[in-house]
Amino acid sequence: MLYLIFRVYCADHTYCTLRLPISAPADQIKYVAAEKLKIPTEDELLLVEVRSNGERVIFKDNDISIPTTLTLNGRIFVSPKDHLDALTCLSEQEEATQGVGGDIEMFSTKELAYYMTLFDWDLFWCVHEYELLFHTFGRHHFGQITANLDVFLRRFNEIQFWVVTEIVMTQSLSRRVGVLRKFIKLATYCKEYQNLNAFCAIVMGLSNVAVSRLSNTWEKLPSKFRKLFTEFEALIDPSRNHRAYRVNVGKLQPPVVPFMPLLLKDMTFTHEGNKTCLDGLVNFEKMHMLAQTMRTIRFCRSRHLVLDPPSPKSEREVKSYISCLRTIDNQRTLNALSQKLEPRRT
């Protein structure tokens, strides 16, 4: 059985460390944590994720695999129901996560893309097709975990917010232009390596309002990079049900690391738009539509990933760097940092 070690906090930000099976339900976690934190269990207790923007998300008692479902800077809290409003995020949640030491400019862009693709491929390879079904229909119906899928989806958000964080935390205009150019080149290499999950995450990060509003930075970017980014934005344009992306993917041969949020969107749309049973009979048309998405997953990894490595100048350092990226996932904080760099024109 797989166990996880994680912290559970209470309203005064004291915490306990638990070691529980990954399949432990929220109900079990909150009572074990309450006992350790000496919170009276006769009160109705809630297990809550407090996010970096202060938002509180209450877990249902039968929710499982809680630690893997958290947002990037989310924390688990236990609280009596009456004290829910007293839960506030930790000061560390409002800051950038501590990535592995290193500066993005230390590494060649091709090296970053290569090792990111290997890392993301390993995460994607671990996702079982059934996890998409469990995620779509609700894990509690099956008593099954979707930890591998959770981690892969979290990776998408990590890359997206890493892009924004690195740009808004670069004070010098000339260096910021260099970082912006590096991310556009990184997206180019990820697309070349068919790591579409990372490609889409990078482009969405560059489209984030905290980055897109930096007009001085974009103006100093060479025109060929601005043109390239415009092409990338068109490729992930959601109009006509992401037609541009789907046409592009249809031309590719495996191995491919797909844009997982879109596959889950397809599954959810199919599930919510069609009844599972009609007149007491299984709706096989719905089953075929769900199976089509699962076949896409199977197709993407029907061949093993084999890439020619770039010159191994700093393999260990790059691997370490891309496995733990520095991120801020609070949009208000990112916007404030962006405003400091380039105040709004009056």
N-to-C terminal Cα separation, in Å? 60 Å
- Treating each run of at least 4 consecutive H or I residues as one helix, how many helices? 15
Number of domains: 2
Low-confidence runs of at least 5 consecutive residues: none
CATH architecture designation of the largest domain: Orthogonal Bundle
Q: Name the helix and strand elements from N-terminus to C-terminus, one letter apiece.
A: EEHEEEHHHHHHHHHHHEEHHH
Global shape: globular
Q: Strand count, sense and closure of the main sheet?
A: 5 strands, mixed
GO biological process, one term: Ras protein signal transduction
Domain Ras-associating: 5-83
Pfam families: RasGEF
Domain Ras-GEF: 108-344
Structure notes:
Pfam families: RasGEF (PF00617). Residues 108-344 form the Ras-GEF domain. InterPro entries: RA_dom, Ras-like_GEF, Ras_G-nucl-exch_fac_CS, Ras_GEF_dom_sf, RASGEF_cat_dom, RASGEF_cat_dom_sf, Ubiquitin-like_domsf. One of its GO terms (molecular function) is guanyl-nucleotide exchange factor activity. The chain is of the alpha+beta class and 346 residues long. The chain folds into two domains: 3-94, Ubiquitin-like (UB roll) (Roll); 104-341, Ras guanine-nucleotide exchange factors catalytic domain (Son of Sevenless (SoS) protein, Chain S, domain 2, Orthogonal Bundle), CATH 1.10.840.10. The protein has helices spanning 26-37, 109-126, 129-137, 139-142, 147-168, 173-192, 196-207, 209-212, 215-219, 223-235, 239-250, 260-273, 284-300, 315-323, 331-341; strands spanning 3-9, 15-21, 45-50, 56-58, 75-80, 277-278, 281-282. The strands form two sheets. A five-stranded mixed β-sheet has the order 2-1-5-3-4. Strands 6-7 form a two-stranded antiparallel sheet. It is globular, with a radius of gyration of 22 Å. The protein starts with a strand and ends in a 5-residue tail after the last helix. The mean pLDDT is 94.
